[in-house]
Design goal:
This protein has twelve helices and 16 strands. Bound molecules: 2-acetamido-2-deoxy-beta-D-glucopyranose (2 copies). GO terms for molecular function: cysteine-type endopeptidase activity; cysteine-type endopeptidase inhibitor activity.
Length: about 475
């Protein structure tokens, strides 16, 4: 653990952040991890961890038959804010079909039917929270028995390392195919991207192991970009100056308390997810998403409106290099309204302003800022429509699904760098969330949406909620 942390860029970032905030670094974030210790078969937690790994394995596999642990090769545990088990086991086919209700699951007597796999599991158990998490699962078919005879158990670590790099290459290849990535044939390009991909997987594992929600982090379409590249292309540096932004009028408080849950997608106020492309124009998408909702509530028709109009014609903001929602509302008021997406289509780069007042289909009259209390934000949203909000997007580069609740040091609420649209809220299995419409395409997160923990001002989500007002 300590060795793994030593070269972690994330830790450096965390340290840099702590220094910037004047946090006492001598006070550890959580107790220093202990060193791994080997386990006896009789260890009380081991059985539970094995069962948990087995259950997760079966749940995630497409195999017809249930598999059970047929041999324990090695097991260690380590104290890391709970107990982290590393288990190397063989899993073999039982005669039980997965769907069968009668469970007398004997192994097959014939070796060839066993289809044995060798798996490495890491199970993270937090006894005082009653939770177990599968941090890692790496499986490979077991080698032929004759070959294995010559393979002493000491070779396991070398073999595991090889398995690991094979697996990494496999994941990278899959990533390249899935997201249609072609790298220039220039020497070293793909190599460099593979290294970044590897680093990002490690960062995702770190986020995963410390996530306090139910999120899954891992390979995303941004997995071949360094954190710096990602930030400079997709995020919004102007939002970091949010404390100096033009003061908006305070919104009057919501008339009713917030209902338990609300989702504007179920009420026709939200257009499909759009894609800002390689341009830091999230602010335009956030504001236009809000205006689409406001116009729908005023007028009854949901029209897709133009972000490009803001990118080209809002002279105060910086087009693809970032902007502030407060400026964007003002720009639209001055222009006299917004054209449709069809009439003024998105190109993803700044062009000469091509606005025609004759093509305006929606207007706004002013804008307001909503209170920073999450309960009030929820009540306001349910009453008035989807809201423009901003947040710290560090964890979003690695997010795949579930309710994200990053460890605070990875998601500094004062370093806001991405604007999005809050469309609803609720709870999943007791975990309260915000439903956030993003502008990175539908192949990001959950069909283009990011779900963030609600109730702890996570990632600064409460800092900059605002809305246009249509009279
Ligand atoms: C809704 O907006 C459209 C387009 O701007 C307009 O033609 C129509 O009259 C509006 N309808 C209502 C009920 O306001
Ligand atoms: C709101 O703005 C529109 C367009 O600029 C304008 O025609 C309308 O009169 C305004 N409404 C009010 C109540 O000010």
């Amino acid at each position: 653990m300590a060795a793994a942390l030593r070269f972690n860029p994330l830790l450096f970032l965390a340290l840099a952040v702590s220094v910037a905030l004047g946090i006492d670094l001598k006070r550890p974030l959580f107790p220093a991890p202990g060193s791994p210790i080997g386990l006896q078969d009789s260890d009380p937690g081991l059985r539970k961890a094995l069962q948990f790994a087995e259950e997760r394995y079966n749940r995630g596999s497409n195999a017809m038959h249930l598999r059970r642990v047929s041999r324990l090769i090695s097991a260690t545990k380590q104290v890391v804010k709970g107990i982290r088990y590393s288990l190397t086991v063989e899993l073999s086919n039982t005669q039980c079909k997965k769907s069968a209700t009668l469970r007398t699951c004997d192994f097959y007597p014939e070796a060839h039917s066993l289809k044995t796999e060798v798996c490495l599991f890491e199970v993270w158990d937090i006894p005082w929270e009653g939770t177990s998490t599968l941090l890692k699962q790496k499986c490979e078919p077991k080698m032929d028995p004759e070959l294995e005879e010559t393979n002493k158990i000491e070779d396991w670590s070398a073999q595991a390392e090889e398995v690991e790099s094979m697996k990494l290459l496999g994941q990278f290849k899959e990533f390249m195919v899935k997201y249609n990535k072609g790298y220039s044939t220039q020497e070293g390009t793909a190599d460099r991207r593979l290294k970044i991909f590897h680093e990002n997987l490690k960062t995702a594992e770190k986020l995963q192991s410390l996530d306090q929600g139910s999120a899954e982090y891992g390979v995303t379409k941004f997995s071949d970009l360094t954190v710096e590249e990602f930030r400079s292309v997709y995020l919004n540096p102007m939002l970091s100056q949010w404390t100096q932004h033009r003061e908006l009028k305070r919104a009057p408080p919501a008339a009713q308390p917030a209902p338990d849950s609300w989702d504007w997608r179920e009420h026709g106020a939200v257009n499909p997810v759009k894609n800002q492309g390689m341009c830091g124009s999230c602010w335009a998408f956030s504001v236009i998403g809000n205006i689409e909702g406001q116009w729908f509530l005023k007028n009854g028709s949901l029209i897709s409106l133009s972000e490009q109009e803001l990118v080209d014609c809002d002279g105060v903001d910086k087009a693809c290099r970032g902007g502030l929602p407060s400026n964007a509302y003002e720009a639209i008021e001055k222009l006299g309204g917004v054209e449709t997406e069809n009439d003024y289509s998105y190109t993803g780069h700044k062009q000469k302003c091509d606005f025609t007042s004759g093509k305006v289909v929606a207007y706004i009259n002013s804008s307001v800022e909503i209170d920073k209390d999450e309960k009030e934000i929820a009540a306001w949203l349910a009453e008035h429509g989807p809201l423009s909000v901003a947040l710290n997007a560090f964890a979003m580069q690695f997010y795949r699904k579930g309710v994200s609740h990053p460890f605070k040091i990875f998601c500094n609420p004062w370093m806001i760098d991405h604007a999005v649209l809050l469309v609803g809220y609720g709870a999943r299995k007791g975990v309260p969330f915000w439903a956030i419409k993003n502008s990175w395409g539908e192949d990001y997160g959950e069909q283009g949406y990011y779900y963030l923990y609600r109730g702890s001002n996570a990632c600064g989500i409460n800092k900059m909620a605002s809305s246009a007002v249509v009279n």
